[in-house]
Input
Amino acid sequence: MKAQDKKIERNPEISSMPFERGNYRWLLVGSLLLLIGYALLMQPDTFVDSREFSLALYVAPWVILGGFGTLIYAILKR
Output
C-alpha cells in the first residue's frame, strides 16, 4: 500500500498549536499588567509611610495580582 493511498483523518478539536489567537492576546494583556504593576512598585524614591496614600502600597499589588490572574486564565482557557 502506498503512502498516498492512506487517508489520514484529522480531528478538528486537536490542533498542533497549544493556544488559539485569543489565548495569546490574554497572555499579552497579563504580561502588560505585570509590567505596569512592577513599574508602579518602583515609583517611590523615598520611604513611604503607610498613613499616606501610595500607588506602590495600594494599587500595585492589585495590578500584579490581576496580571497573574489574567495569565492563569489565558493558559487554562480552551
Remarks:
- The mean pLDDT is 84.
- Residues 55-76 form the longest helix (22 residues).
- The chain has one domain: 21-76.
